[in-house]
Automatic annotation (TrEMBL):
The keyword Lipid metabolism does not apply. This is diphosphoinositol-polyphosphate diphosphatase. Residues 17-129 form the Nudix hydrolase domain. PROSITE patterns: NUDIX. Pfam families: NUDIX (PF00293). Keywords: Cytoplasm, Hydrolase, Magnesium, Metal-binding, RNA-binding. GO terms for cellular component: cytoplasm; nucleus.
């Protein structure tokens, strides 16, 4: 199912949940620092880069695209991808067009910041800490579909912008 809004098309699964993808972007393979971006809706709040899937888009491609764009909705299923950043651009589209910022946080600090206003984003990191990591090849995929399912997948390299691996 799709809904059209000005400047965007939202896609939904057959149960009515918005399809989303997000990226946990780590500074290095130690995974001790994660990149957060300022919210476009609330610029003083930090969030995990992510947003809605476009029609016919795969979650991995959307996650990588959403590192640079942001979109939020309340009822959604999110596929979370873990990436290691290999290069940082001084400016990117959202920093120029809407003044979005980015900052590296120690994972423990990111959990505290996210827990205040985006607890679901904190859950992405918590699930990763429980054993889901690109370095160990594990992912969290429930065996029985869950209406609020969170899927964390190991790092993917195909189709990534040249700034990340």
């Amino acid at each position: 199912m799709m809904k059209f809004k000005p400047n965007q098309t939202r896609t939904y699964d057959r149960e009515g949940f918005k399809k989303r993808a997000a990226c946990l972007c780590f500074r290095n393979e130690l995974e001790d620092e994660v990149l957060l971006v300022s919210s476009s809706r609330y610029p003083d709040q930090w969030i995990v880069p992510g947003g809605g899937l476009e029609p016919e888009e795969e979650p991995g491609g959307a996650a990588m695209r959403e590192v640079y764009e942001e979109n939020q909705d309340r009822k959604h299923r999110t596929y979370v991808y873990v990436l290691t950043v290999t290069e940082i651009l001084d400016d990117w589209e959202d920093s120029v067009t809407i003044g979005r910022k980015r900052e590296w946080f120690k994972v423990e600090d990111a959990l505290k910041v996210l827990q205040c206003h985006k607890p679901i984003h904190a859950e992405y990191l918590e699930k990763l800490k429980l054993g889901c990591s690109p370095t160990n090849g594990n992912s969290v995929v429930p065996s029985i579909p869950d209406n609020n399912a969170l899927y964390v997948t190991s790092a993917q390299t195909s189709g990534l912008p040249s700034t990340v691996r």
